[in-house]
Amino acid sequence: MTTEQALVELRSLSRAPDSLHERVRALPEPRVRAWTLPRLQMRRLVLVATPAVLAVAFGAAALNGVVAGGGGDRSTSPGGGSTAVFERLQRENATPIWGTSTNRTPALSEYDAAAPVPKASGHGARRAVGVAALPPSTTRLNRYEAWLRIEVDHDQISNAATRAMEIARSYGGYVASVDMNTPTSRGRASLVLKVPVAKVGDATRKLNAFGEVKAQRVRIEDLQRQANAQEKAIIGLTARIESLETALTGSISDAERARLRFQLERAKQQLVAITRGHQQTLREGRLATISVTYFAPGTAAAAKPDKPGRLERTVREAGDFLVREISWLLYALIVAAPIALLALAVVLGARAARRSSDRRLLEGT
Amino acid sequence: MEDVNAVETLPVGRMGVAAKPSFASVAERHLDDVYRYLLVFTRDPALAEDLASETFERALRAWRRFDPRRASARTWLCALARNVALDWFRAERRRRRREEAVAEPESALDLPELGLSPELETALSNLSAADREVIALRVVLDLDAEQAARLLGVSVTACTTRLNRALKRLEERLNDDD
Fold first, then answer.
1. I want to staple A126 with a disulfide (CB 3.0 to 4.6 A). Which of A24, A212, B90, B146 is the partner?
2. How many whole angstroms separate alpha carbon A24 and alpha carbon A7?
3. Widest distance between CA atoms in chain A
4. Rounded to a whole number, what is the distance in Å from the CA of B108 to chain A's nearest CA?
5. Do A14 and B115 touch (CB under 8 A)?
């Protein structure tokens, strides 16, 4: 018998017996559900899901932009401080400020005072415009820093800078740095002055008198606790050194002597370091730092940062939100990708193992 | 006998998509194919009848999941029949192992007749189930290589290779009988 004959014979195999036909015919028709979930093919799912996800992402970003960036104008001062802080400063400074003794200074206080200074007319009206810095404590050691932005006429910048340096020196302080630039009609002079804390009020008042104070910021940090701790450490180390020196004069073993000497050296080194630190702290508490900038009106306008409009803020907020969404997506992908790959590998491995097992089963049967 | 090569024509529904035929019509149309596939695969008419019956019961339960756009009804039914047959082969192997553990292995029983010539029946009995399966799919049902490969879970090339080897072994067995 040839293979061709065998294949023809195989193709002519008998049909299923009638009894089987009867059994299958007896099977009922499957029940049709009134409603079933639509089966989505992967391609259709991707085609539908991708625009939907993008629409949701952009919609959320736009909504966030409108809500977060589209509100009313925020009142910000050129100096970076808020109106509320300025009002707080004004309130706290309602009592006499300079030259009076205060019982309490905040351990750490920082104030921003800025623009809402009433615009005076005329050069004379600019003087002593009413913005004053906080007074330093007379009973505690403070690190005192002040920043001033004062608008003066263009031709007065140089004069104001010179006078500011003279003021600092007249109070026993010095000029830490000067940076002056006065091209054509605009100009600016930035000075960093070191003035004794006790004289900082008078110095500030005089510095303010050259023009109109546009922004003022004061930062007071309590150094008393730090100085006290350093003094306490100095006293302790001094006593320790004395006791060690006394112990070394007695009759002790060589090993003990060497150990005590080592401790003595270390204590002396610590004493030197802490004494230096204490002197530094005292210096900081003795001299206030005043950073003052005199500028011509044109310069101020140029330096003033543009306040973003409502649309710009909205777009910026929406962009930030989109960036956050992308970062979340990337984070999720980074976290989920290894798990998904592992799961896929398990599924594929199980399927391959099952096929291999089936093949062995059929080949052995 | 029904022409198994005939192209399956399905009623066209809305939007030009082929509408799903009724289960009864599919069962009536493809019962003989499923039975003959199982007959060659298992080499036992009674068993093939039982497995075909079970295949259609499974098909009835899974009918909601049948999608004519993804596969023809015949291929879908053959895949179900293959799973039913594999389950039976696995159960049979377990049964034999249990029996061999407690008793002497039983001697080979006389094989039931398939309605073929004695030489072909003997040659088929000397082939493995894997060889008989690929012959059943490609020769008896006349599935194309792609359909058969998808059903077997292998590539088209592997399916063709398996068919060639199975036919070669069939030829060898037929020549041995001569």
1. A212
2. 28
3. 128
4. 13
5. yes
Residue A120 banded pLDDT, cuts 50, 70, 90: very low
Max Cα separation, chain B? 64
Mean pLDDT, all residues of chain B: 83
ipTM score of the complex? 0.79
Domain regions of chain A by residue span: 43-73+308-324, 83-225+289-306, 227-279
Minimal-distance CA residue of chain A relative to B51: A20
B49·A359 Cβ contact <8 A: no
In this structure, are residues B81 and B55 in contact, taking their beta carbons and an 8 Å threshold?
Answer: yes
Q: What is the pLDDT of residue A61?
A: 86
CATH T-level assignment (fold) for domain B17-177: Butyryl-CoA Dehydrogenase, subunit A; domain 3 (1.20.140)
CB contact, 8 Å: A104 with chain B? no
A247-254 long-range contacts, Cβ below 8 Å, gap at least 24? none
Of A16, A29, A362, nearest to B129 by CB-CB distance is A362
- Reading the block at residue A97, the tokens are 């400020």
The residue assigned the tokens 């009988």 is B177
Q: Please list the rounded mean pLDDT of every run of 10 residues in chain B (178 residues).
A: 42 53 89 93 90 94 86 92 93 87 67 78 89 92 91 92 93 79
